[in-house]
Amino acid sequence: xxxxxxxxxxxxxxxxxxxxxxxxxxxxxxxxxxxxxxxxxxxxxxxxxxxxxxxxxxxxxxxxxxxxxxxxxxxxxxxxxxxxxxxxxxxxxxxxxxxxxxxxxxxxxxxxxxxxxxxxxxxxxxxxxxxxxxxxxxxxxxxxxxxxxxxxxxxxxxxxxxxxxxxxxxxxxxxxxxxxxxxxxxxxxxxxxxxxxxxxxxxxxxxxxxxxxxxxxxxxxxxxxxxxxxxxxxxxxxxxxxxxxxxxxxxxxxxxxxxxxxxxxxxxxxxxxxxxxxxxxxxxxxxxxxxxxxxxxxxxxxxxxxxxxxxxxxxxxxxxxxxxxxxxxxxxxxxxxxxxxxxxxxxxxxxxxxxxxxxxxxxxxxxxxxxxxxxxxxxxxxxxxxxxxxxxxxxxxxxxxxxxxxxxxxxxxxxxxxxxxxxxxxxxxxxxx
Length: 433
Known about the structure:
The protein is of the alpha+beta class. The chain has five domains: 3-51; 66-113, no CATH class; 140-213 and 226-295, Ribonuclease H-like superfamily/Ribonuclease H (Nucleotidyltransferase, domain 5), CATH 3.30.420; 315-379, no CATH class; 398-426, no CATH class. Helix content is 36%, strand content 16%. The chain is built from 15 helices and 14 strands. Strand 10 (366-370) and strand 11 (373-375) form a beta hairpin. Helix 1 packs antiparallel against helix 2 and helix 2 (22-29) crosses helix 3 (33-46). The radius of gyration is 36 Å and the shape is extended. 20% of the residues are buried.
């Protein structure tokens, strides 16, 4: 079954199980409720086979014969008499001279599928209009990451994660990371929020960390939500709009920043003898100050658009990666093969069988939450092992007490009428079997 048929089968199975009703199924399948009842009747009679169309796997009656396609490939291929003819001209000659009656669009499609003709002409270069800067600082912050040999072979290759204000061109944050990862962007979000405030918009590329490529499943469609990546969730909970650029030119300010830094920052770190990631990150604050003094401009509107964060904001709740766990009956959750014990005070309600979230901040510290309430916990090295069960001693039956040889025969110690560890002879195997 293809993806659409699998989806239809899953919806019908949920209706049968009673988890959703026919109206919800009609919304998911984009049909009427009456059609859902008809599908359910077929599902009860045929099972999964009802979602597969009857023509699936059949060869269409109007399909061009294989022999005709091979003849066209020989005539239009290298060395063929029509090798340099266009599709329209070839269509006329095939009809008049070779007796091959085929549609012009069908001929063009066959030529492209057989790779006799190029699939399409080269696309024209898109011309874009220049976008004006944002009017006030904090209205738009462009973020991106640049992989480069920043240490020129003196150390490992690194990725520079950074943010630049669109209105002023001021660098707000830079950090070196081994790869473009979630930790780098979480550090960026937290630093910008604590130093300047929350911007109105984050402008970024279409990386899967910043924009989830997943399609909504049935539960998402029923709840009316779109799949989100962890970083999308952070921006959404902070109330910051997220815009994914359709091209690198759309976020040209941060792209030009990388070109400038690969010229200036790279050489200044060479003069300073920087050769490790730790030294490079320690070098960045002074460089950012000099860079902003040289290149930053005044905004058109002197009133900033930064939204200040609350002083009591729980940073570990917002600026972290989270995963959901179910609490066991002993008030523990499993976290990558390590149990976490949730500590409860006297009088507090039990959390058994409830959902909690484990938040990991950029420094790697763990925090457990139920909703927005932080829970006290303790990470255990391993679960205590249960003591091995001691087998109960066998109590001899009354018959064994009366006949000691029967107990010895049952234990496998009686051979040939004598008690002892003697193996049976070859002639006795059939008798004792």
